[in-house]
Write a structure and sequence with these properties.
By secondary structure, this protein is α+β, with helices and mostly antiparallel strands. It is built from three helices and three strands, in the order H-H-E-E-E-H. A three-stranded antiparallel β-sheet has the order 1-2-3. A hairpin with a 7-residue loop joins strand 1 and strand 2.
Length: about 110
Amino acid sequence: MRVGEDGVAEADVVSLVEESVTQRRWWVEQWPEGAPYVAGLVAQDVQDALLERYGRWPLCPVCGAGEPHALDVEPELGPDPHWVCSEAGVKVAAVGSLGEALGGAASS
């Protein structure tokens, strides 16, 4: 198991993503019109699971002062989800492009 720069074990994250995708696959079978919302829901599922195991993730890269805080997914239920800093009121990256926005190659 490899641990990323943020201390989160990468194999654990893959398992969390797989679990969420499995659950959301069932959700889309029940509500096919909800398919455009799956990316944001999976991001929120993984974020919630990581909070329980490791703490806040992903930490906001925008705010340099004050208490560290996590980014949020907006819209909570809608197409084209983005990671946003609710405190600064700015979009940071589209879900799936956070790594690129932070200067890395990882997708989140």
